[in-house]
Here is the input.
Amino acid sequence: MTTTPLYEKILIAADGSEKNRAAVSEAIRIAHACGAAVVAVYVQDLGAIESLPPGEMLLKDTWSVIQNEAESTLARIRSMAEGVALTTVVLEGKPAPEIVRYAKENTIDLIVIGTQGKRGLERLLLGSVAESVIRSAPCKVLIVK
Here is the structure.
């Protein structure tokens, strides 16, 4: 009798916030238990840049901050993921639709996301990104607080 692993591909929706660390830890713990591969996805939200007043220097500085944050967030996840097959991906766009699109295109079995990201007070119960992912995801979603 052959058993299929509970999860083969787990996506971590990474945003660099402190609250997201619990989601990262849980995803890695599940991956260890299931022998699953993990994809850590960081979505560079270009909305932050689009809302800025025109000014080339300000745009370059903001873009640089966003890129540095993506790199440091994914580096932290790499350091936490010892013993797990990990891929890191940086996408551009609105976080929820990009996470869902990636999950669909890459046959992800489980998306792990924190309850609140950087917009802490924007939503009281769930972050708007988490809520949107729950509504549209092609797979199971684990919300970690």
In short: The domain at 9-123+132-144 is CATH 3.40.50.620 (Rossmann fold). Residues 120-125 have pLDDT under 50 and may be disordered. The chain has one domain: 9-123+132-144. The chain is about 45% helix and 20% strand.
